[in-house]
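Re: that backbone. Tokens:
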């Protein structure tokens, strides 16, 4: 079936494989602040939305979520050869997740960082006493989509897919940025 999203892509475009990682606290999405995360009911609902959008786009997503950084590292190491790019919401690892940032960087595949909230605003409003908080991941990410709740993931998925299709940009993930 042809979908609206199909029409963004050239005929015969490749079925890119994209790893979608959710870090600590995202498995508890259904119980988090509605003000920040909106009415979405669960991580399963989020993963379902991302998977359905990927189907419409003609790409394959491999979702993974964990509260444990070591499990996230194991997932990245195990799947690095089988994915063309990554989407990650580092969540609880955002400010200090150097091991995860480094593991993604080691794969040399494009990385798009996503957040439900606009973290710059969130840090300024909620944790000004932490000083100048920033994401560890943005320094080496290919791109960043945030502040659009679950729609950040859909923006990232569409943009990463088109960028992988683009021979003058990510060229299937063979080049960095
Ligand atoms: O757990 C999260 C979720 C988050 O990554 C987001 O999606 O907005 C923002 C982070 O600051 C926070 O620790």
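Recovered sequence:
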């Amino acid at each position: 079936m042809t979908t609206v999203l199909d029409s963004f892509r050239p005929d015969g475009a490749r079925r890119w494989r994209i790893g979608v990682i959710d870090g600590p606290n995202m498995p508890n999405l259904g119980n988090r602040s509605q003000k920040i995360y909106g009415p979405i009911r669960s991580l399963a609902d989020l993963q379902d939305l991302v998977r359905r959008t990927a189907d419409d786009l003609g790409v394959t997503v491999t979702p993974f979520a964990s509260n444990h950084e070591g499990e996230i590292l194991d997932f990245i190491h195990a799947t690095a050869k089988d994915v063309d790019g990554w989407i990650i919401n580092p969540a609880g690892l955002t400010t200090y997740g150097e091991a995860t940032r480094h593991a993604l960087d080691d794969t040399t595949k494009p990385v798009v960082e996503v957040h439900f909230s606009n973290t710059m605003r969130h840090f300024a409003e909620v944790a000004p006493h932490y000083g100048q908080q920033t994401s560890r991941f943005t320094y080496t990410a290919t791109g960043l989509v945030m502040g659009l709740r679950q729609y950040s993931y859909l923006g990232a998925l569409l943009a990463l897919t088109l960028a992988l299709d683009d021979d003058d940009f990510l060229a299937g993930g063979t080049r960095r940025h």
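DSSP finds six helices and five strands in the chain. Residues 25, 89, 91-92, 94, 115-117, 119, 122 surround DQA (CB under 6 Å).
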